[in-house]
Design brief:
By secondary structure, this protein is mainly α. The radius of gyration is 22 Å and the shape is elongated. It has a domain of 83 residues.
Length: 130
């Protein structure tokens, strides 16, 4: 009398993926009814939801899935916690410093992105900012 019989790991995984898909579909339907300016403001949440949808089935343990299945929207729970702990608002200075170093050290951006013709760095013999 205490609920459904216990699922094996494969059944649990399939049920979890199905529930995540249902959660994501609900989010998409909500986003489709939203103004574009609001969607832009929600970009981090949208990206995190998609990332969690793709990562959770492979990353969550059976214990994680069993716990999260208790909730109507486990995708929302994990998305919100992911943003809280890893979102752009909590970016560490060291991570940004490394990102900037990687961009400037490799020089790859010069091959992949358009340069501003009005600015030529002084080391290239062009105009200076002074």
């Amino acid at each position: 009398m205490g609920g459904e019989p216990k699922m094996n790991t494969e059944e649990l995984s399939l049920a979890f993926q199905k529930k995540l898909g249902k959660n994501y579909a609900g989010m998409v339907m909500k986003w489709l009814k939203t103004e574009a300016t609001y969607l832009i403001e929600q970009a981090e949440e949208i990206a995190a939801a998609k990332l969690m949808l793709e990562a959770l089935p492979d990353s969550a343990s059976a214990q994680d899935m069993e716990y999260l299945m208790r909730f109507e929207n486990p995708l929302e729970i994990v998305r919100d916690k992911w943003i809280e702990e890893n979102g752009s608002g909590t970016m560490l200075d060291d991570e940004l410093t490394h990102t900037l170093w990687s961009i400037t050290d490799s020089g790859d951006a010069e091959q992949e992105y358009a340069l501003d013709p009005e600015y030529t760095p002084p080391e290239q013999g062009g105009q200076t900012l002074c």
